[in-house]
Amino acid sequence: MKKLLAIIFLVVVFSLQYVAETMAEEKKTITPQEFVTTLSEVPNKVGNFISSEVDKTKEYQKKSWAEMKTKWPWTMFKGKE
């Protein structure tokens, strides 16, 4: 009998939690105008993202190469500056 009451209690608790979560979700509708605007902004956003990633990569490679030139193999052949 105690197990049955415990199971019923858990079912009620989880049901109430589910109801509370579904009521808390905000129902947002997207208008066709918002959809078109968002869709038209995608190419520009992708282009900006790619160009910023290329700039970050170039900066990292420049720093990495500058650091690498001061390390062992280059200093052995060129001599220390």
Task: Set down the secondary structure blueprint.
Layout: H1 2-24, H2 32-69, H3 72-78
In short:
This protein is an all-alpha fold. The chain is 84% helix and 0% strand. It is built from three helices and no strands.
Structure, explained:
With 81 residues, the protein is an all-alpha fold. It has one domain. The protein has helices at residues 2-24, 32-69, 72-78. The chain is elongated and about 85 Å long. It starts with a helix and ends with a helix. The relative contact order is 0.04. The model has no long low-confidence stretch (mean pLDDT 85).
Strand content: under 5%
Unreliable segments of 5+ consecutive residues: none
How many helices? The count is: 3
Identify the overall geometry: elongated
What's the total count of β strands? 0
What structural keywords apply?
single chain, 81 residues, mainly alpha, 3 helices, 84% helix, elongated
